[in-house]
Amino acid sequence: MVYFGTGSGGYRTLVVLNARSMAISREEVRHIAKLARLEFTEAEEETLAEDMSRILDYMDMLNELDTSEVEPMTHVLDLAHVVRTDSVKKRISQEDALRNAPDTDGDYFKVPKVIG
After folding, report:
1. What number of other Cβ atoms are within 10 A of residue 55's Cβ?
2. Mean pLDDT, the chain, as a whole number?
3. Which of 40, 75, 106, 110 has the most neighbouring CB atoms within 10 Å?
4. Distance of alpha carbon 82 from alpha carbon 96, whole angstroms
């Protein structure tokens, strides 16, 4: 199995996983965690390696199924796209919207500065 990730410098990294046993090593978990900028304890790495290996084994088992006669679908449930009709409704007035605001300048909400 081949996995592409993005490294810290924006470059693409190729990770080749063992295709025979689908076993993920702790080193591969560390590499994927580094790409995702995550940190795990050794115990968590071991658990993740086992979980990821089981997931890949299950996916490999699903790949053995013959789906040639299964019609492609966009959703697992047979849903119809329901669209409501547009209708004009009365909106809340600006005065009513600002009534419970903790701080306003008369016309707008005042909020703390969050961008330098």
Report:
1. 12
2. 82
3. 40
4. 32
DSSP string for 26-90: HHHHHHHHHHTT----HHHHHHHHHHHHHHHHHHHHHHTS--TTSPP-SSSS------PPP---P
At residue 10, the pLDDT reads 54
Q: Give the pLDDT score at 2.
A: 47
- Residue 8 CA to residue 113 CA, distance in Å, equals 29
pLDDT at res. 18: 44
| Residues, the chain | 116
Q: Which residue has the tokens 């306003």?
A: 104
Cα 4 to Cα 17, 53, 88: the distances in Å are 11, 17, 48
Q: Give bridge partners of residue 6 from the DSSP assignment.
A: 12
